[in-house]
Design a protein that fits this description.
The chain has 153 residues and is mainly beta. It is built from 3 helices and 12 strands, in the order αααββββββββββββ.
């Protein structure tokens, strides 16, 4: 939330021209762009208050390096965003750096008191947990990024 500071001064968000026009700060927008740029996310729609931000980029094809025998599978990006299967409260069961197996629960989405398990689609290492414990999530919202397990070519 934005609130005036003592002495009549305004917060940094109120002085951000983008926030005044669009309702989202330049820092928040930069964070969203970084998320899309550093993952395999090709499309991201986010609603912040009354502001809706849609980011789209073309799919990036990954070329395996020729000097290293440990790579991502051909044609697949090195990281994967695991998204929410529904609306509710996210309860993560993993942390950054954890190694997880395909089918392992990465957390749960609670809705109407009923938890729905969210499972990893592949083996890998948790790169970043994007949603804090107890935060509300929407359908399709990225919950964490998973660095795919390398294999020997």
């Amino acid at each position: 939330m934005i609130s005036p500071q003592s002495g009549g001064q305004t917060t940094q968000l109120e002085s951000d021209p983008l926030f005044g026009i669009a309702g989202v700060s330049s820092g928040e927008l930069s964070d969203l762009i970084d998320l899309v740029a550093h993952s395999d996310i090709c499309e991201l729609d986010v609603t912040i208050g009354a502001t809706r931000v849609s980011l789209r980029r073309p799919a990036v094809s990954q070329h395996a390096p020729t000097t290293n025998s440990v790579t991502s599978p051909p044609g697949e990006p090195a990281s994967l965003a695991i998204t929410s299967p529904g609306v509710g409260i996210f309860r993560p069961a993993v942390s950054k750096g954890d190694d997880i197996q395909s089918g392992q629960s990465i957390g749960a989405i609670e809705a109407l008191g009923m938890p729905t398990s969210v499972e990893a689609p592949r083996n890998g290492t948790v790169d970043e947990v994007l949603v804090q414990d107890g935060a509300a999530v929407e359908y399709g919202q990225p919950l964490l990024t998973l660095r795919r397990a390398a294999y020997v070519a």
